[in-house]
Design brief:
It comes from Artemisia annua. Its EC number is 5.3.3.8. InterPro entries: ClpP/crotonase-like_dom_sf (IPR029045), Enoyl-CoA_hydra/iso (IPR001753). The structure is a single chain. By secondary structure, this protein is an alpha/beta fold. It has one domain (about 1-235): 2-enoyl-CoA Hydratase, Chain A, domain 1. It is about 50% helix and about 15% strand. It has helices at about 25-40, 65, 70-90, 105-110, 140-150, 150-160, 165-170, 180-200, 205-215, 215-220, 225-235, and strands at about 1-5, 10-15, 50-55, 55-60, 95-100, 100-105, 115-120, 125, 165, 175-180. The strands form 2 sheets. Strands 1-2-3-5-7-10 form a 6-stranded mixed beta sheet, sandwiched between helices. A 4-stranded mixed beta sheet has the order 4-6-8-9. Helix 1 (about 25-40) links the parallel strand 2 (about 10-15) and strand 3 (about 50-55). The radius of gyration is 17 Å and the shape is globular. The relative contact order is 0.16. The mean pLDDT is about 90.
Amino acid sequence: MCTLEKRGNIYILTLTGDDEHRLSPALLDSITAAIHRIHSETTTTPSALITTAHGKFFSNGFDLTWAQNDPKRYKYMDAKLQVLVRDLICLPMPTIAAVTGHASGAGFVLAQAHDYVMMRKDRGFLYMSEMDIKIVVPDCFVRMLKNKIGYLALRDVMMRGDKVTAEVAVAKGVIYSVHDNAEETVEAAVKYAEELVMRNWDGHVYACNRKKLFADVLAAMDADETLEDMARANGVSSRL
């Protein structure tokens, strides 16, 4: 489902295979476990995380086939994604999403949960599908996107369901940078991660400042009873 590689002080988390990387509970758990592993290994040494994917999809959103129009199953996936996004916000290092294919719905949210989003321009688009599939976006994700994207761009992405290519996305400030193909996108992410590591930032301070930046997002998650109910049912904390 996903692999985790460490190159020096850079972690590379890759969604594997050539499918759509739909965010099923199993895939969400796999990614979250990898983030927890990174967090457990992090010491005082500055590090960085890159998340990318094989194939023509970064992630095509939630596994709606698994949900089968069951609101409880959909809410279950949503709660798991909230846990993953919280973990990324709390991770004590810079994070980069190297988007090498389509990122739709929850896949778009996953990419935007990183500090920087880099994207290939020869294939793929960003797409918030919720308007088209009649789903209300959870408050915490709306707050996160408001913190990262200007109003006009967010209106077009969220309220019109525009399918945004990399070149349009970088012009609108939706992503950080654009690159010719998948290989160059990952290479650019690694190069930038190396530059960030060289800044020698304190990971704890970095995480604390990010949590302050996204305090309203974390507050919305804290207010979501489903998130805490799921955590209690599994005998775990919903926080790192």
